[in-house]
Structure formats: C-alpha cells, structure tokens
Amino acid sequence: MRIKELQQVYGEEQIQTRVAELAAEISALYDGEELVVVCVLKGAFMFFSDLIRRLEGPQVEADFVRLASYGRSASSSRTVSFVKDVELSLAGKHVLVVEDIVDTGYTMDFLLRQFAARGVKSLRLAVMVDKQARREVPVNADFTGFALPGGFVVGYGLDYAERYRELPAIFEVIPEY
Ligand code: IMP
Hints:
Elements: E1 3-10, H1 12-29, E2 34-41, H2 45-52, E3 59-70, E4 79-84, E5 94-102, H3 106-116, E6 122-130, E7 143-147, E8 153-154, E9 170-175
Parallel strand pairs: 2-3, 2-5, 5-6, 6-7
Antiparallel strand pairs: 1-9, 3-4, 8-9
Helix pairs in contact: 1-2
Residues 43, 73, 100-107, 152-154, 158 line the site of inosinic acid (IMP).
C-alpha cells in the first residue's frame, strides 16, 4: 500500500485528556489494591506509559507480553501465540491488560483466555481504540479510549509496517489508489 496522506483522527491533547479520565476511573476502581498492569507490546507502549504514570489509587506492578498472530482473520485457522509471556505470577492478582487497539478480537480473546486460566482475582481490559464493528470474536473492553468505526490508524504506538509509532496523535492512513 502506498500512503497518500495521514489524516488526524484524535489529537494529542484529546488523547491526553481521555487517558487522564481513564486513569481516574481505574484509580478509583482499584483504590488501595495491588494491580498487575500488563502492556501488550509493541503497540500499547505509549498508552501504557501515559496511563500508569497517572494511576494514583492502586499499587502497580508492571509487566509486558508480546504476541504473534498467524493466518488470515475470518477463518478458524487464525492462531495467536506468546512471543514473550509475563514474568510475574498472576495467580490471586487483580490484572489489567492494556492494549492499543482491538479489531477482530482474536488477539485479546487469546490473551484474556490464557490469563483467566491462571487463577487471577480479577481480569479487565483497557484499550485505547476499539473497532467494535470489525469484531469476529466477542471481546469487550472495560475501559475504552475511543470507539473507531473503521479505517486503519497509526501513531501513539500504532504502526503501519513499523512506521509512525512515535507520533503523539492518532491518524487515519489514506491510501493512494
Ligand atoms: P485483532 O486480533 O484483529 O483484534 O488485532 C489486533 C491487532 O491488530 C492490534 O494489536 C494491532 O497490532 C493490529 N491492528 C488492528 N487494527 C489496526 C490499525 O488500525 N492500526 C494499527 N494496527 C492495527
């Protein structure tokens, strides 16, 4: 795909305001509790670091996973696996997964099932951008930054072929036809 232009969808200030709102909600919910916050690499790194530095209620432990997915979506042959698992034990812990974007849902469906099987005390999902309309398997976020109807977006950790992750705002990629 050749890119014609990037069109801003969510600005830097708008993102930071929304992250602060989510952090306040999360802080209130886990006030005084221990909380393992899991960043899904690579895409969630920016959202994760902005979010956890604003948490005030919980005692935070940070950990990281990286997932790989193979096969086409819209087919049961789509498989997801760990490239890197968390290093902390999740048994008996409140766990909050932080993801950049949920699209078809295959990736988060895999991760949430894996974590649920580890005897967690609670398991929730925070996602910056939710493409609910594209879901092929049901995944519901507990905290959502923005609901995006469609389109491919980059920036704020999200990439197209590893580019644009460093941008502080989120842009829709407009292809050249
Ligand atoms: P899912 O398994 O289809 O929900 O895919 C989730 C993953 O696909 C995300 O973690 C992203 O890495 C990638 N992805 C889906 N949509 C976009 C997008 O619009 N921009 C960048 N990456 C995306």
